[in-house]
Amino acid sequence: MAYDLLRAVSAEDAYANLVLPAMITERGLDRRDAALATELGYGTLRASGTLDQILAGCLDRALSEVEPAVLDLLRLGAYQALRTRIPPHAAVATSVDLARVTGNGRAAGFLNAVLRRVVVCDWDAWTSRLGSGRSALGRLALRTAHPDWIAAAFADALGGDLAETGKALAADDVRPQTHLVAWPGRISRDELVAASGGAAGPYSPYAVRLGAGDPGALAAVRDHRAGVQDEGSQLCALALTRAPLTGPDARWLDLCAGPGGKTALLAALAAERGAIVRANELHPHRAELVRKATAAWQVEVSVGDARAISETESYDRVLLDVPCTGLGALRRRPEARWRRSIVDVAVLAELQRDLLTAALRLVRPGGVVAYVTCSPHLAETHEVVAGHDLLDARASFGATDQLGAGPAVQLWPHRQGTDAMFCALLRRR
Question: Fewer C-beta within 10 Å: the chain N or C terminus?
Answer without folding.
Answer: C
